[in-house]
Amino acid sequence: MTSNSNHEAKGRVSRRTVLQASAGLGVVGLAGCLGDGGETVTVGASSDGSASYGAMNALQRSVSNHAEDAQLNITAPGGDPDSIRAYDAGELDGYTAGNFVFNQALDDGEPFDEEPVDDFAYQALSYLTLHMHWLAVDGSGVESIEEAIDDDDLNIWVGPPGWGLRTLCTTLLDDAGLWDDIEDPVDVASEDVAAQIDEDRIDVFFGYGTNFNGLPGWLVEADSREDLYALEMGDDYVEAIEGSAAGYEEVEPYGYEQDIDADEIQCWTEDYNTYFASDIDDEVVYEIMEISHEHWEEIQDADDNYMDHSDPADMAQYYHENIPVHPGAADFLEDNDAWNDDWERGD
Fold it and tell me: Domain-by-domain residue ranges, the chain?
């Protein structure tokens, strides 16, 4: 019998057990039974048009082509926070999330401060890093994000309200003393950004490149329709990023069809993992890992932003310390000489 149900409470890892694992006390969890027809794993992957959603759908296609035990069902709850909450409510078997947002959930930080979550999944597969940077529409008349914020006539987009990337963006702006000066940020979905620029409702926004490969679909559209250029960030802003949980890099622009008037762009970065419930069968998670490793080129054919997983070690490069690793992922990494004994193996 094929299993299509989402994880039950017995397969969920509570905040208490995650914190115990961080203290070296271990995690108690039960793996679900694998039916004769395989197991369908429902994963929340941010929102339609996001880099996570594109990457997971590409992985889903290859799993459908090659798996014997596993099937993936990818949904778009609306953002990483919504995915984490849906898992906590028992509506998903797993999710994707940036490390910043995952830590915010674990620590009851924004946007989880008023509605904390209790249950967390095991980490499994690193698949994404983003290079976020500020852009302006040609004619905006500013050279830096600080100048843009000082100009009350410019409309600034900081991401949709449901995105974890918005929380990261606004947190860094706040740390730099800039967020309070943005009185009325534009609140639209990413897929509406290009249209809003056409209607003169967005002048400045952040974009991102993915895995040094390309741009998400919504930014590809904006790049094809609008004249854009990169903005600089001041020293105080850079210091705020360097002192945060985000990374800071200066990289050559990539993915754009146009010249965005910069030899290097200043970026804050975010890394992403997939997470699976502890009761998802070990063989299922192992097979998903194996397919991503053996068929990464096929997956990139479907989404050229997908990470190169030819080296199994790269599949765990964004792991959190002291957060349990799904046993199926741990088995795969051990079999491929990529396991680190400092990691916590889930039960």
Answer: 9-128+272-335, 130-270
Q: What percent of the chain has pLDDT over 90?
A: 84
Q: 9-128+272-335 with 130-270: one CATH topology?
A: yes
DSSP calls for 211-246? TTTB--HHHHHHHHHS-EEEPB--HHHHHHHHTSSS
What are the C-alpha distances in Å from 92 to residues 84, 231, 305?
9, 39, 25
**Measuring CA to CA, which residue among 53, 57, 44, 48 is closest to residue 85?**
44
Answer with the residue of higher pLDDT: 136 or 38.
136
**Torsions phi, psi for 319 (to 5 deg):** -60, 145
Least Cα distance to 95 among 112, 104, 82, 106 occurs for 82
pTM: 0.86
Q: Tell me whether strands 204-210 and 122-137 are parallel, antiparallel or unpaired.
A: antiparallel
Q: Domain 9-128+272-335: what homologous superfamily?
A: Periplasmic binding protein-like II (3.40.190.10)
Instruction: Give the rounded distance of the alpha carbon of 25 from its chain centre.
Output: 28
Q: Name the percent of the chain lying above pLDDT 70.
A: 89
Pairing of strands 119-120, 13-14: antiparallel
Judge residue 110's burial from the number of C-beta atoms within 10 Å of its C-beta, 0-12 exposed, 13-18 middle, 19 or more buried: middle
Tell me the mean pLDDT in the region 81-107.
96
**Are the CB atoms for 3 and 35 separated by under 8 Å?**
yes
Q: What is the pLDDT of residue 347?
A: 87
Q: Which of 158, 140, 3, 143 is nearest to 73 (CA)?
A: 3
The token duo for 339 is 């396991």
Write down the CATH number for the domain with range 130-270.
3.40.190.10
The per-residue pLDDT for 5 is 43
Residue 186 pLDDT: 97
Q: What is the pLDDT confidence band of residue 31, given thresholds at 50, 70 and 90?
A: very low
CA distance linking residue 288 with residue 62, whole number of Å: 9
Residue length of the chain: 347
Residue 136 per-residue DSSP state: E
